[in-house]
Design goal:
The chain is built from 15 helices and two strands. A two-stranded antiparallel ribbon has the order 1-2. A hairpin with a 3-residue loop joins strand 1 and strand 2. Helix 5 packs antiparallel against helix 11 and helix 8 crosses helix 9. The protein is globular. It starts with a helix and ends with a helix.
Length: 333
């Protein structure tokens, strides 16, 4: 019974152990800095924008698909939204922000629809289809802005990325928690979530189970890109502007987080709780590396890559039962 429980929650145990090791390391080396309240407020303020993006991409991974265009599409959508807000600056701020957000989300939904049609209807490999669309959205963004930042956000909107409720709860964190709750509900308490795991596990078997797999793929791409766009909307609030190349480093970071959390692009696997643990762990590492003034901050990528390799090896051993068999041999000895 204990072996089955460990196997079922193996990723969760490994991620919690990894987080504990990371916290222990930075406590020993930079404990005086790490456990300051301002540092943890900074962590809570920084990870929500790419945390929300990761939650969106998670749906594609569970479906067994890949989306490489989410940041390029999000940047294009937010550029169009900011341009609208700038052109109608005399309108009431609340209405202006609402319409701008709807424009961005509408563009993201259309972009997701295009991705879904390319993959589900034309049978183009997901990586190739979405890389092509990544180039399209980036090209459109650069053409519209000449590569410059687009400003003109209402001050009320820019406050979202820097505001604390009750003096301790960052607004971006609150948005992340709301999106997290929505995603958790969709995956665990809806027919859509059940079908999503079935499609990701075996798309042929899902078809024989009377699931409209094409509709599922298209809908999942739309959901993915809309949620990713919400993360981009948080990002432009922090930056107080939009630009064609904002968040480009988030593409590989989000993929890293999902793989680290056991949400593999093979499809049909992964728990949203593990994604939360992985997001926080990655942000702690990023914050901890920045505490070393003599250390190049780009070493964070090296650390993330090394940790990813370690976790991949461990997860492979757990999935094929090597650790369990080793434990049995030791027990019998």
């Amino acid at each position: 019974m204990k072996s089955k429980t460990f196997e079922k929650h193996s990723y969760t145990f490994m991620l919690l152990g990894l987080m504990a090791v990371v916290l222990l390391f930075f406590t020993i080396t930079k404990g005086a800095m790490l456990w300051k309240g301002d540092v943890w407020l900074g962590i809570a303020m920084q990870f929500p924008e790419y945390g929300v993006v990761t939650l969106g991409l998670m749906f594609c991974f569970i479906c067994g698909k890949m989306d490489m265009s989410f940041m390029a599409l999000g940047n294009f959508a937010t550029i169009m939204a900011v341009r609208y807000m700038a052109d109608h600056a005399n309108s009431p701020a609340g209405t202006l922000i609402l319409v701008g957000i709807l424009i961005a989300l509408g563009i993201a939904a259309v972009g997701g629809l295009i991705n879904g049609l390319l993959v589900a209807e034309l049978d183009i490999p997901p990586v190739m289809a979405t890389i092509s669309m990544q180039l399209v959205w980036t090209g459109l963004s650069v053409a519209l802005t000449n590569g410059n930042t687009v400003k003109g956000l209402p001050s009320l909107y820019t406050e979202i990325g820097h505001k604390y409720l009750f003096g301790f709860l960052p607004v971006p964190l609150l948005i992340f928690l709301l999106i997290f709750a929505l995603c958790w509900f969709l995956l665990n308490h809806t027919v859509y979530g059940e079908k999503l795991y079935m499609v990701g596990t075996n798309i042929k078997a899902a078809e024989f189970s009377a699931i409209n797999t094409r509709r599922m793929v298209i809908g999942t791409y739309m959901l993915c890109d809309v949620i990713c766009c919400i993360g981009c909307l948080i990002m432009i609030s922090t930056m107080a502007s939009a630009k064609a190349d904002y968040g480009t480093s988030y593409v590989m970071r989000c993929i890293l987080i999902l793989v680290l959390a056991g949400v593999l692009p093979d499809g049909g696997m992964g728990k949203i709780g593990n994604v939360l643990i992985a997001v926080v762990t990655i942000q702690i590492i990023a914050t901890g590396v920045n505490m070393f003034s003599n250390l190049n901050t780009y070493y964070a990528s090296l650390i993330w890559g090394a940790l990813l390799l370690v976790v991949l090896v461990m997860s492979t051993k757990v999935s094929d039962g090597s650790f369990l068999r080793l434990g049995k041999r030791k027990a019998s000895a």
